[in-house]
Design brief:
Structural class: mainly alpha
Largest sheet: 2 strands, antiparallel
Distance between the termini: 56 Å
Shape: globular
Oligomer: single chain
Radius of gyration: 18 Å
Amino acid sequence: MHPIDRKELWHAEATLIIGIILQLTISKKLMIGPKYTVAFLISLLVLAVAFTAPRRHIGKATSHITIATLLIALVSIANAGELALLTNALIHGSDIPGKSLLSGAFAIFLTNIIVFGLWYWELDSPGLSGRHKKADDHFQFPQTDQPSQWEPRFTDYLYTSLTNSTAFSPTDTMPLTHVAKLLMSAQALIALITVVLVTARAVNILG
């Protein structure tokens, strides 16, 4: 393992802080457990990662790998649960105000982008955990065709996640492995379901 670049770590932490803020905007009825539990746990894990990431090259850094993986898994599980509750509320009806449903869907949509950006970073690069990069690349970035020694950073994977959620398909970055294709397919389906449900709800409110 190698020490994570401070700028790259700051970008990841800033993105996760945005995720915490998004969690605080979601209605309690669309959340699993107490309202502030997930945001609080993510905050603790962000601090833990910030403390251990610069030292991950020392020894085996098993604790850091566990913390980083737990962080990503926690956000993923929380967002999946919220999406399930949102889907149920939009399909079967709910006493949650329309504005709260729409804002919650927007927060879930953005959190979904953050979550998959983290998974792509972890899969194709050392990521937060700092695992050695595998011999086979999972994604092909257009910059890799250039002669320079360019390597993707967290923001590149976050951008890939953003474009995949908005276009429902790869844009300039192509998945090369089955794992990458499955992840991108799952993200595109989640984004599509969210957009369709929100559009239907918006039409119903305007109607």
